[in-house]
Request: fold
Amino acid sequence: MILSIHLAKTAGTSVVNTYTYENPEITNLNYDKKVVITTQSLSEITNETIIVDTHPDFNEWEILKNYNPFVFTFLRNPRNRLLSLMAFNLDRDKEIGHPHIYKPIWETYKDFFNAKDFEEIIWYLKNKVHFIGYYENLHKDTEKLFKMLNCNFSNLRYNMMASSVSSKEKILNEYQADLDEDVFRSHYELDYKLYEYFKN
Reply:
């Protein structure tokens, strides 16, 4: 089993779609058997599940003990990720919200791993996650990931859920001061620490 810990706007869907495309036998299997699932609840996993693309917002990590999955995740510059998410919401007439009210990335991982603090999150990511890629190095990191999975890789199959340039410009104009890199960093300090930690 392969598990993608999918943070919003880090190209997780594109990576999973590409893996599925490169493995036609997966595509041909019966999806009613939950062979490939996108979920916010790991309770949907069955013994026939091959790929799990999950947005982690729960405390169900213990369920995975029964499946021993290969786990990967992708990180993205926190400010750029949030800008993309806000623009994505604007494109779909969803609530945008102020940049400072969004849930930090590290807290999302904290919920998923049921971790006590930031240091424990780092421990989980170092010991329980087999591959951590970066959106800023998406093509090369996806290629590295697929080699670990013994899967062919030619081109990344981007999904159609990208946020529009016009919406990003509108968000930047409206929240210019709050999205200034230095100002933004002060509100999401641990997100930046997490983002930069695995680059070393």
User: Anything to note?
Assistant: The beta strands are 2-5, 36-39, 51-54, 70-75, 131-134. The two ends are 28 Å apart (CA to CA). The CA atoms of residues 127 and 194 lie 15 Å apart. The chain has one domain: 2-197.
